[in-house]
């Protein structure tokens, strides 16, 4: 993704375009094309102390000045009350995300490039500068890091407890502002002068729009200086790891090869699929010895529901079978009372079990995993017992009144609880409780019973297979009888709720078409799709409620109360394009005209990749045009479901052999990458060779 000079130098535009780097451990770097941080979550070094959770901001930003023949030219930008200082964006001529965020600055023919990259699998961020083109008689780069040391959800303010000391070695400096957080080490190829200073009242306009604390104070320990010669590369790498030596050149080389390998496996016949393929990797992260799925950046970690809705698109269609299995096995190990966790908290050990659907999505993913991988051995040993626990738990009854009733359908609900994906809650107000029998839960239940029957038969348990088959047939018969809303020509969203049947026109009914063949007769499915297309479909996703409904909210804006009140009351969700396209193809078939139309439904996502967070898909959009992106600027299922639909339903081809090879290459390279070396007590500042932190052209 590239941004041209006009957009780079348009402050409002450049502030609205964001970039994201992730490290596969829950840590990330992010910011704006303008260079100014507009969110509390924008940071240079943001690490997960217990991957992927317990995230802390350590290095917020760099202030950069280029001294050329006596002139001081800013390369960075910052927002203060009523002022932008410095205003480096005004010298930016291009921004690109390939292979990592890269800015090009020009002043009178003198051109400097800046690159920022996170190293995969490491808590290391590397910043590089290169002087290209015309060379001045003298060019000096001055860089001031801005530090805090805080939880990534919070803000930081000047205080007397921050330690201003520095340990200065050869081409390495260490600061330890707060004793309860890791020290920050900076490896550099220049000179360092310790000169502590505070930068007060930095503004976060996006947080102000969200009704949250919108300013903080940054501490700067000192200044780095680098002499720039034409063609030379100067580096500054920050880490929270305990290191005394860092071969930055080798790290960068391996990271570039790793990213090239990921892209090599991407589809080449569809640009949207190619970009989503590369974006998908950002959401895979470590949890313990295994892998998990980050639901969204900047503020989510891993959620059960999001994980298993996303897993087919992130892992199965991209050939990441080992990762998919690690995720499945991790959640299988935490089943409790027939439920998988919905969330692993940022802080604390106990997972949260508070959904009616996450466990059913888990079973769906197992079915998809087995069909894709043919991995009967691991499924039989680990996944099959988990499937039985869930099915039996739902039959017998579990938390929140979740249980199978006599009609074979699943009900659930409890006061103050929000159990489906429409889970907004403000204080004690549950915005969309959906207690009773939600439509998508029945589709998931029928699908889960289908998988249970298949696995039981495959593994020789004929009695259990028959039980699943009987329950499935009973659920299908009840569904067909009870969910059709004849007057509206679509499916009820919920039946048997506290106030009877809910005829809200919502997209949840699409899963009754996309997940289970024949659950909805074709004629009815056609009527549903026409109505959904007419009232819910937008260029970037599906509205969560028809605009004709009195409860419809077309804008997601304001404070917490206003935003959460609109979250599922008309707000557009792009991940719903996945089941919509799947349902469309099931109903209309794979004739060329149908495929062409289905592909056109995704065109808006392709355009969106060039907006908001470049190369990523936002969590939500306003229901009303121009459909402003909102919420998380990068959401796992927003990437995963369109990608899955492109490959599974529309037949976009990927080179799975290359994709498989790429992962082998990446794994090998990671193993040979430089390893951390700890001094006694983790505090050694042993001197490294002079070229350890230096990159050469």
Structural summary, described in words:
By secondary structure, the chain is an alpha+beta fold. It folds into two domains: 2-247 and 677-682, Beta-galactosidase, Chain A, domain 5, CATH 2.70.98; 266-654, Glycosyltransferase, CATH 1.50.10.10. 33% of the residues lie in helices and 26% in strands. It is built from 19 helices and 37 strands. It has a nine-stranded antiparallel β-sheet. Strands 2, 3, 4, 5, 6, 13, 17 and 18 form an eight-stranded antiparallel β-sheet that branches. A three-stranded antiparallel β-sheet has the order 27-30-31. Helix 6 (304-316) runs antiparallel to helix 7 (321-332). It is elongated. 54% of the residues are buried. Mean pLDDT is 93; it is low at 661-697.
Provide the descriptors you would attach to this structure in a database record.
33% helix; single chain; 37 strands; 697 residues; alpha+beta; nine-stranded antiparallel beta sheet; Glycosyltransferase; 2 domains; disordered C terminus; Beta-galactosidase, Chain A, domain 5; eight-stranded antiparallel beta sheet
According to CATH, the fold-level topology of the largest domain is: Glycosyltransferase
SS strand fraction:
25-35%
State the CATH architecture of the largest domain. Alpha/alpha barrel
Q: In angstroms, what separates the terminal alpha carbons?
A: 25 Å
Content-based structural category? alpha+beta
Kindly give the count of domains.
2
Q: Can you tell me the CATH class of the largest domain? A: Mainly Alpha
Helix content: 25-40%
Question: Which geometry do the CA atoms define?
Answer: elongated
